């Protein structure tokens, strides 16, 4: 990746109809890192991602890509820099995997241009990176949920953008496939330097895979920084209204949140428990 | 796997598409030739070729040159126009039921034309003009009525079906109070017929097919990307709202011009896209094969309507008979799948 692209928001306000969803948000996406956005339902995290992907025009403020107002840039130019995997993309009936992935080449093609060797190479490399090469000639309809998600990621990869936004890429997947998809995205980040921004539901996976964690509450930025700084019992209480213990995950050393519900909790003070676990 | 293997798979899929398109082109040309030769009197391919070349052949010059040639040409043009308009709507809204002849756009043209004939007592080009304006207005009304935070296919289809029913009752009302003479003329606007074919009817349609059809073909890639959903399409660099507007206007224009020339030939718009998709498979745009299927449908149905039965039926009756079972099949299939529309 030759030049590093930058993405940030300035005083960004977003909404639908009369409803303001995000209010005066200043946010910087670190280049070449993995950023995950977490927050309660309807806190505005998906709306924020939509605005950063140019799907939603700001009420106020702006999204800035490489120093320019994102909503004033030509659509195709944006599509060469910034890719998006929406929450529920639709596959046309019967389409072959290679053809679907090939559609990711659109921003690079001229109006009546023919399919080029370069397009073919990009498709192959996207299939290889996502481990879907063997599926190339299969119909997307026949694939499992996990395979299908990898194919959609392959389509986004064929677009060859330095920035990739994903809206809950692990929803509807079982735990094995969730990890598979997140590992794949980490590969992309580590090997190609792709800047990744994703909305995730699962706090623990978000903390584990993020270099940069953003917690959004009520349409405003609550906290942003390294997962260790952001994912604390206090943040969970303020953002989700949930009592929890945060301990170091024994596998990765990243913070891990354990919710305390009204049942099943041992009769210990959350504060002491955290201290014991952390020292041990 | 290598670049070559991926490319091989792609060209295999494209090869099937090319074969089918080639076969359709041959079939259309063949049926066109048959239509020119067959009739009350049979003329040999040689006679037909001489007439087309501009030579005078006794008998054939009039029958082939003045009657059959404009008729067959109009059949091809209306077939292409209806099919392109229908397939565009079906692709864009990802639903085979979203065809202009199901969601009321053709009905708008019919109702306006019948109104112009029976109440305003105008004729000829004026009727066509009113029909074209009315289909655009109907399309706009359906779009506005179904707009709520964007347009959802299902809502648009249901509202369209409602509008179609309304317009149909307007037509019935107008026909009841029409005079016998007007009734004859007005009937063409209900069943669809190319009996009155002439070069002057075909000419505006030629322009419409070239210009509006060209616009649709130029947008075929964007149309394919819209199938992935608005968000994906936009992320891949498609200007979604602008594309949708251009494509809708072009498609409605084609339907309107075709309806003005031949009346709403039943189900051609509705059938051509799905038949073409079934034939070529999911690789590439459906527009070109759909246009060919449309042309073939109208040519064949008109030939059958004229000569297969004791009485001569207008082409719309034949396509109607073909299309109705498919509509029922689609409704049963969606119902079985447990989905809504």
From TrEMBL, chain A:
GO terms for molecular function: ATP binding; ATP hydrolysis activity. PANTHER family: IRON(3+)-HYDROXAMATE IMPORT ATP-BINDING PROTEIN FHUC. One of its GO terms (biological process) is iron ion transport. It is found in: Cell membrane. One of its GO terms (cellular component) is plasma membrane. The keyword Cell cycle does not apply. It comes from the Bacteria. Residues 7-243 form the ABC transporter domain. It is a peripheral membrane protein. This is ABC transporter ATP-binding protein. It comes from Aeromicrobium piscarium. Keywords: ATP-binding, Cell membrane, Ion transport, Iron, Iron transport, Membrane, Nucleotide-binding, Transport. Gene3D superfamilies: P-loop containing nucleotide triphosphate hydrolases.
